């Protein structure tokens, strides 16, 4: 059996995001490394358009990373780059079975428009103490092929959009014709009344 403390330690070491810590309104599923839990090929779920937009534009502002810390850290501790720029904040922390320290943190992908170059082994600091970035076993940063819209689906969507555009153009043309007809009929009625 495993107690709650061991379960939490295992969760953090695997990089599995938890509600209230890594899963909040401040972060989207792609930033949390949950590509494997989201599909762009399935339709109509809450947040689908936002997730698709973030993916298509490469607009993720931050990513969930693991940190091997030299000292114990706490939720809310600042994570800074080698030059002291703030990268993010610790969201979960634990002490490993071997006595080492490990944490999860959301880290910015860019600072002042420049890529940070987040990668395993990158030296950072947590609350001023040395730390190293670690890849997370649970996190995925790419969609599985079946979770991306297929070319066939994209063609269908394009065809539907083309049909909608054609229908809208046809409706606008019909409305313009009806307005011209009504104006002509009004003009003819006015001419008839004058006689």
From TrEMBL:
It is found in: Mitochondrion. Transmembrane segments: none annotated. SUPFAM superfamilies: Folate-binding domain. GO terms for biological process: iron-sulfur cluster assembly. GO terms for cellular component: mitochondrion. Gene3D superfamilies: Probable tRNA modification gtpase trme, domain 1. InterPro entries: TrmE/GcvT-like, YgfZ/GCV_T_CS, YgfZ/GcvT. Residues 167-194 form a coiled coil. Its main location: mitochondrion. The keyword Endoplasmic reticulum does not apply. Keywords: Coiled coil, Mitochondrion, Transit peptide. This is Aminomethyltransferase folate-binding domain-containing protein.
